[in-house]
Amino acid sequence: MTPAETTASVRAMRNRLLASTLFLAALSPFTAVMAQTADPAVLTPERVFANPSLAGPVARGVSLSPDGELVAFLRSREDDVDVLDLWAAPTGEGEPFKLIDAQALVPDAGELSEAEKARRERMRISQRGVVEYSWDQQGRYILAPLEGDIFLAEREGGAVRRLTETEADEIDAKVSPRGNFVSFVRDQDLVVLDLNGNRETAVTTDGEGLITWATAEFIAQEEMNRDTGYWWSPDERYIALQRTDESTVDVIPRLDITGGGARVIEQRYPRAGRPNAVLELFVHDRESGRRAQVDLGENRDIYLARVDWSADGRTLYVQRQSRDQKTLDLLSVDPATGASRVILTRTSDAWVPLTDDFKPLDDGRFIWSSEETGWRHLYLYERDGTLIRPITHGPWPVKSLNGVNQQTGEVFFTASFGYAERPEGVTGGHSACPLPGGQVVMCDVQGERPTIQRLWRASLNELRQATPVTSDGGWWSASMNKTGTAFVGNYSDLDTPPQSGLYRADGTFVRWIEENRLDEDHPFWPYAARRQTPTFGTLDSHGEMLVWQMTTPPGFDPSKQYPVVMQVYGGPSGGGVRQSWQGATSQLLTEAGYIVFRLDNRGEGDRSAAFKQALYLRMGQPEIEDQVLAANYLRSLPYVADDRIAMMGWSYGGFMSLMALTEPDMGLASAIAGAPPTEWSLYDTHYTERFMSTPEANAAGYAASDAIPRLPNLTGRLLLMHGMADDNVILENSTRVIDALQASSIPFELMLYPGQRHGVRGNERQLQQWRTYLDFLDRTIGSRAPAARD
Fold this sequence. Notes:
signal, hydrolase, 35% strand, Rossmann fold, 790 residues
């Protein structure tokens, strides 16, 4: 095929996809699915956003019973991908079975309360049905909140009983450690249900208005990865619980616009530089009924970051973070009196990150992580906070602490690094690995490999090199049982859809939970032949390695030129460039004839402290500088159409798209900005101040990151999108851009979503969203773009 014929073929394919999109826009979802293009190998938006899911049978929320003999997981229904059921499977012989059928138990799901809607939004839960569950520590019960009420499944026999049936929602339900009680929050108070007598006891009774008990406040849920506000002691005697007073928080009126009208929500939203809610921590003694207040210090303007109990229940550990987030104290608390003392302190010139790496051990010692060496690593401490030794070390970061086998002294964690090959005859390490206090040891670590992730094993008893548990290549995550003898491994790579299996602690495969094999029976199989494998590479920015990935269209011909869609997030996150299974929406773009490119810029990804802190006090500057570097790299490639490069992103990615479209050095032809934060002083305290300090202390940084003054510099066409009930990046972020563009007579395109919060939910609306994406891209950089017609 000649280059001209190839060009004609790609444009024809792009036009066929667009024609299908525009024609099907007038059809019902069912008719749209049945009226897909005649060529079944071409993936269309109509098939991507239909049932069953193209991802296949993916297990979610997988966890092992405490004894490791049963696996529980959530699975989407085949007839409705947005409803989850609870499944279980024995770790030995036997097939998986449905433990809780959501629609059978609650066939007519009602409307959730505003508090529960907000909580699920914070937890990024978009499905209905069984969306979360928990074990008791004995492994006898599984507790599952379902549509506002609570159900308890007994492991023996599988009987399911309904514990509550009230008009109010019972939220954040838990089984107590020994399985004698169920606790939950109802109407802003904590309630304990005795499973033996089915008798409820109100632990608190004054929760109302602006006072809430046992519930994580907005900031903790949204930004601190803490979604609970109470904690049982292992012996069930004590319950630590927080009290939240929101009277100090500013009321920010927010329009909640739906298809049926609008209402004003008087939302308590703590904006950067403004007051937070006031938090107190108490310990309730279930035996005496007394409540002791925990001494959190004289300064009330702090964050309650983490709360953990020692294994014997004698000590309550509290992580207290300063308002500027440069100090993180570990408090040791006497639960009987609430008296506390600081036993460890972490400090940083930028911010101290919060993790879930704190692990109390049975002998009183504990594990905790630190970035003192510039990399996140695990350390072993005595009960009083005295450092015993490092557990991990090297020029790479620990991603998460996954489990501990206290009998064998093994510590399991995930990380992205590799070992260098030793030259012949060399027996010792040949890389310098720093330790706390300036000590340096020699090791064989090659360094970071950010695009892959594995489960590793280190020693609790001596400092030595970590050894891999899972195979190399691809992306692994793991959930271990309490004893550290087995784990559920979740894996995918470029050729393997997400699959879940049960493994022994040494990595030996035991059985599949969801194999999700890509074969003739897989829903994605008809489209697999046109799936394009990404290529990966790196760029250098100020001595830092940036990783990128690129996917070309089917039938790619390097002798012709293609438009490029740069997908971006760009903000502090786990990074998006991975050697893992690529989502179906990326294939929609390649089928439409676009090269799809993604770069993880500085500030994005679980990397070194220096890499993450590059954006400190200047969000939107180093990230855009790195994206300019990427755009220039793309333009150096002979098969890239220089004048047909677009960017698309949501949330921080929407901010990046706006900033990039107003950066002359990027030279974008168009950009799609979804739910963009456009002025950081409108965003919340914990997130914004972590990276930008306060508007008063960093006025120049806030001004430089404001999108409004940059709008006259637009280099191409803008599509702005936002949910009209967004309670995270509130709609004001977009309306100020709309107003400024209209006041300057600058044309742009707008798509608003009534009733949608910080994301577009449901197949029908997501289908419309992607039809809009493809139409806009085709008109600005695709076959109908002026550059393509010339």
